[in-house]
Amino acid sequence: MQRLKERYEKEIVPELIKEFKIKNKMAVPKVIKVVVNMGIGSSMKNKEVKEALIRDLAVITGQHPSTRLAKVSIASFALRRGMPVGLAVTLRGERMYSFIDKLFSIVLPRLRDFRGISKKGLDKSGNYTLGFAEHIVFPEIDPAKVGAPHGMEITIVTSSKEPKEAEKLFELLGMPFEK
Fold this sequence. Notes:
Layout: H1 3-20, E1 31-39, H2 47-61, E2 66-69, E3 84-91, H3 93-110, E4 128-132, E5 152-158, H4 163-173
Antiparallel strand pairs: 1-3, 1-5, 2-3, 4-5
Helix pairs in contact: 1-4
């Protein structure tokens, strides 16, 4: 899916240069990477569930996730240092653009009672973080085959240092902000 990358280069870059009066083309804000995280929490002891989550996240992103390990021990959570606590995928290049295109045009509009996403997910550095309560909103996942839906978090990292520039970039990319 080259569609979003081509649109970025041909339409979005000139518009951002014009609006923010950017002199150097390399200073135009762009999406650097997309990080998809999924906490495996209580399912870390059940190997079958963990493998199913790894398979689901790989199908969603098109890339095999890495397992994140606990950095500290917490006795009240029965958590020891080095135990698997999450899964993460970092997308760049082609996979990043196709994932963003799928997220904005297919996944978000499929959500029940969807009226747009809040601009509060934008941080001071120009990155946007979006959370999902269930990973079954992605079209690749068959809800009948999934035991229990898991939450996930998607962070879109930009090169922008200004939130206004990043907001305009996301708007031009097609992010459905609430009105």
